[in-house]
Amino acid sequence: MTEKVTYHNLIDQLKQSEKDIGIRNTSKPNLTTVSLTQDLINLKVYDCFVFTKNRTSIKLCFLQYEHHLHFTRSPGTLARVDVSFYTLGIIKTKRVYPHTIIQPESYADKLHDLLFNSDIKFPNQNEFNSKYYLSTENKDNLIDSFAIDTMNYLCNFEEVYLELRGNNCFFRLDKKSIEYNQVIGYLKFGFGLCDLL
Q1: DSSP β-ladder status, 132-136 and 76-104
Q2: What is the pLDDT of residue 116?
Q3: Where are the beta strands (DSSP E) in the chain?
Q4: With a threshold of 0.85, does the pTM exceed it?
């Protein structure tokens, strides 16, 4: 089954189970200022749903984007455009945060930090510091407002991407498409974040 068919099936299942799991289709947000989506070519918000539990809401947006593959063959270059999908969650936070990006630390991030000392490290948080690369516009404000419980929570997951901006938190668990049975995992993660942020 192709990724596009899987996503069509997911959206159909969510629309059919609106009453069963407390979701509703909602308007598509403008994501042009969200850093987590800046590197995506021809980004399109495919569909969006809001889940509400105990007056806390999580918006799940299903995104479609293109990536270009180039193959070199004599005498020229062939290009192929593939379409991929992934899920972005959006929640409101209790606190106001400076614009902050938290993502798995790559080798490129480690090298950049080694050369420019750009990664923010929290005292006594070795697991979090080694797993995640963190950049923010206001280090002191973030260190004062970002709780140890939040860092411990994030360390329980393999691949988390977070963007904090004011009272908004954008998150994704990876850049892969998800299936219907994985929606509950996204929601559990999002509600856990709501409790902490």
Answers
A1: antiparallel
A2: 64
A3: 23-25, 41-53, 56-73, 76-104, 132-136, 161-172
A4: no
| Cα–Cα distance for residue pair 194/197, rounded to 1 Å | 5
Q: Quick check: helix, strand or coil at residue 74?
A: coil
Average pLDDT over residues 62-68: 78
Question: Alpha-carbon distance 171 to 157, whole Å?
Answer: 12
Residue 114 banded pLDDT, cuts 50, 70, 90:
low
Instruction: Return the H-helix or E-strand segment holding 112.
Output: helix 107-116
Instruction: Copy the structure tokens of residue 90.
Output: 């959006």
Rg (CA), the chain: 18
CA distance 43 to 172: 15
Place of tokens 């490290």: 121
3-state secondary structure of 175: coil
Q: Are 197 and 56 in contact (CB under 8 A)?
A: no
**Dihedral pair phi/psi, residue 69, rounded to 5°:** -110, 130
Distance in angstroms (rounded) separating the CA atoms of residues 167 and 165: 6
Side chain identity, residue 43: L
